[in-house]
Amino acid sequence: MPVCVHCDVELQPDAQFCFRCGRRADAAFEWDATTGERLAAALGPDYSVIGELGRGGFAVVYSVRDRRRNRYLAVKVMRPSLLTAPGLKERFRREAELVSRLDHPNILPMLFTGKAAGLVYYAMPRVQGHSLREQLDRRGSLPVKEALRIFGELAHGLAYAHRNGVVHRDVKPGNIMLDRRGRVTILDFGVAKAIAVRGGTISITGEVVGTAEYMSPEQAQGITEVDHRCDVYSLGILGWEMLAGEVPFLGDTVHDTLAMHVKQPIPDVRGKRPDTPPAFASALRRCMAKEPDGRWPDAVAAARAAGATT
Fold first, then answer.
1. What is the CATH number of the domain that holds 101?
2. Same-domain pairing of 197 and 219
3. What does the DSSP assignment read for 206-230?
4. Out of 66, 103, 137, 170, which one is annotated catalytic?
5. In percent, how much of the chain has pLDDT > 70?
6. Do the bridges between strand 71-78 and strand 112-116 make them parallel or antiparallel, or are there none, so unpaired?
């Protein structure tokens, strides 16, 4: 099934517009059968492209075997229309170099980036497991203890990146993997920042880049300078969703959802999940403060206040 490149919802094959966000669906078809072949040519004979793992608004992901090192990689090929702004490919390369220096058990590193055969791509180790998105789609809400553990591991990974000058900007369940032991791994650090244009705004030719359900109010308003506290906000949204089985803000369109982040009061998760410990519920509310100054100063402080032991 084709996927809307703006909100990741599945579309009917003949759809001209996305039924959810209302935008044209033409771009959903820009990946063609030759992309995998071009990636194979770009990587060279030491790598074999096995097949497609998935796709979304930013990229299509391929499973690749590194024959020399006998390991499996996930290689993301960036959506071509995101890479047309002057200097954007160089910006992406620089950001990837910064992210490649991050060394934390809850962060998936970038191994290398490349630009060839008309493609821009980056490679990561392939995690054996499933995404938090898949977990939530399958199970709905999670047990409080499990949600708290995941919340704590996410917080520590994010805080480490923040201390090293890297802000994620697109924290969402699809960017979080759970390995076979349940350990959290955060994907795609630096990607949203790398494709940001116009002095730091997260927009491409006027389009919001990111996922509306998890965006901070400042991102939703297109504020040009955002810092680590936008990730703290998204962490709160994730914690809320793990407990409630749904996100706290969801409008009929992307623009409605963004407006809710800015204007709608923060709901108490205990209205959906009464067994949530008061400390956890309170920590989530502060994560989701409308103004950055009202949030926790860092993600670890949020985890400690919530009662996470990681």
1. 3.30.200.20
2. yes
3. TEE-S-GGG--HHHHTT-S---THH
4. 170
5. 76
6. unpaired
Tell me the per-residue pLDDT of 176-194, one tens digit each, with 9 for 90 and over: 999 888 899 998 876 656 5
Q: Are 61 and 182 in the same domain? A: no
Name the helix (H) or strand (E) containing 176.
Answer: strand 176-179
Q: For residue 120, what is the enclosing H or E element?
A: strand 119-125
Are both 141 and 210 inside the same structural domain? yes
Bridge partners (DSSP) listed for residue 185 = 177
Q: Are 160 and 90 part of one and the same domain?
A: no
For CA atoms 200, 205, 210, 216, the dihedral sign is positive
Element (H, E) at 129: strand 129-131
For residues 293 and 180, membership in a common domain is answered with yes
- What is the three-class DSSP state of 175? helix
Render pLDDT for 135-153 as a digit per residue (tens, 0 to 9).
Answer: 999 999 999 999 999 999 9
Let me know whether 143 and 291 are in one domain: yes
Structural domain includes residue 114: yes
Q: How far is it, in rounded angstroms, from Cα 180 to Cα 171? A: 21
Instruction: List CB contacts of 198: < 8 A, sequence separation 6 or more.
Output: 224
Tell me the DSSP string of 251-284.
-SSHHHHHHHHHHSPPPPGGGT-TTS-HHHHHHH
DSSP 29-60: G---THHHHHHHHHH-TTEEEEEEEEE-SSEE
The verdict on 40 and 187 lying in the same domain is no
Element (H, E) at 240: helix 229-244
If asked whether residues 180 and 269 sit together in one domain, one would say yes
For residue 137, indicate whether it is catalytic: no
With respect to residue 13, please indicate whether it lies within any of the assigned structural domains. Answer: no
Nearest 5°: the CA angle 7, 61, 225 is 50
Range of the structural domain that residue 89 is part of? 31-125
Separation between Cα atoms, residue 117 and residue 44, nearest integer Å: 11
